[in-house]
Protein 1
Amino acid sequence: MYSREDIKKKFENFVASYNTEEYVVRHKREHSLKVADVCIDIAKSLNLSKSDCEIAYLIGILHDIGRFKQIEIYKVLDNNSKLDHAEYGYGLLKNGLLYDFIDTREYDDIILKAVRYHNKIKLEYDLSEREELFCKIIRDADKLENLQRQSYENYELYKVADKNAQISDDVISLFYNNESIPYDKINNDLDRVVNRIAIIFDVNFSYTMEQILSNKYIEKYLKRLELVGNNKVIIEKMNKYANEYLKDKLKEINDL
Ligand SMILES: [Fe+2]
């Protein structure tokens, strides 16, 4: 297996073939590097072996590799676009790109499945225990990095432009069923806010839960939205609910 430094260099070379003048390209580069570091943090919290930590790192680096093509084609990061960046990345890696990043074929299934399934709304696939483990690590790391960034980054995508928006009924009922919100249910800015809070219903490890709670990522994100009136009240109630949910989950895990 290559060293972490070598993997990083190979990734930088890959990114350099895209237009790094574009914000989205630079953003995805940074995101991938950070997610890889978070993958290591999670793997360490689970006391995984050194080589498993390295695999987790590699998956973090590679998980959004398909995004770069998506950016080139569509110019934006649109989660509704016809191109599923995870499927696309999986295809690229399977057809040979993976061989540039790892010199053994031993972990191909784990890496390919983790990349392919990292963005699916639910992890409902026939997976071995180890495949499932790495799928969960990348799903948690990706969410944690996004939550962290949204808690401080000033990017127009995260603003609530429509002050009169109302949360869609479907979105409310999914939320109070403790479920993630699929992109096709999102009708407006406020639904998008709920979608972000609902991320917490699909995190797997106590490390991730503790980070979200102790760093108050969701509170910080919500503060930046300048919500007013009834919407502010509804969202604050949802935030409270989400916090309680996370605390209960953590207690459940710690009591095991
Ligand atoms: Fe990602």
Note: The CA atoms of residues 20 and 30 lie 11 Å apart.
Protein 2
Amino acid sequence: MRTVFLAFRGLLGLLAVAAHLIFMNNTKNSLRRPMPSQLVYNYAESVYGLVQGKFEDSYGPVTEMLDDISKIARPHKESLLHDVIRCVGGLYNENAVYDYAHHWVDEARDMLRAADMPIPRWLTVNAMEKSDPDHRSALAKRVDKAFELAIVPAVFFMLFSDKTFLRDFQDRVAERVRELRRSEHPAALVRDGVVRRCVLPTWLIRAIFYRDRGLCQKCFKNVSGLDDPSAVRHVDHIVPLALSGSNDPTNFQLLCGRCNVTKGARRSDAMPTFTPYW
Ligand SMILES: [Zn+2]
């Protein structure tokens, strides 16, 4: 009898563990991603510097990385900023790899860990210094994949939250737009250097609302509808189309009706602010 009781109790324990796992799986937010802070800060700093006109000797001007006109004309989930982050990543890896094996092996390990990918046993400073070509190409493939999975979305997340950066980035995009001629891109432009207005997709409107927490980014009025159901909200171009702004997702912010009217076709120049935690 006691054996039956123990077996029964064991079974109950197993069921409880299984239920816990199923429950945890169902409640876990499937979009939640790891934020590998140190790598993200390093790459974000490189992208930031590049947009400010530094590092052009190594990377070339940002405007040359903005060659996908379809992304200037319409919002793509893989935005222009994703393209620039990839350029920085690719060049950074290529330059850094084998001259600084010690640093590089540590960074490659961190990157694989961030992407939840296994770390191969041959990934050692010694092996990298010996320059085994098989290991080099195998490592390059894995690191590219890890960079794509773990670093690009996290760097994008960080920079997409920084309005000072976005305005500077869009100023660079505007330099590129000013070079475009309507005769060459009639579907994308209304006139030379001015992109055609487009209907914004729901995913982008939701993302801007989520990022800006339902607040007008100029006067900080709550336009979520929770405070005032009649509140009018606009998704505004940070650099207006008339000033060679683009329809890339990185060129939008939330404004209330009043601020949208008073801003008109001016470039957004308010300094971003924050509310301290205490
Ligand atoms: Zn406002």
Note: The first strand starts at residue 189 and ends at 191.
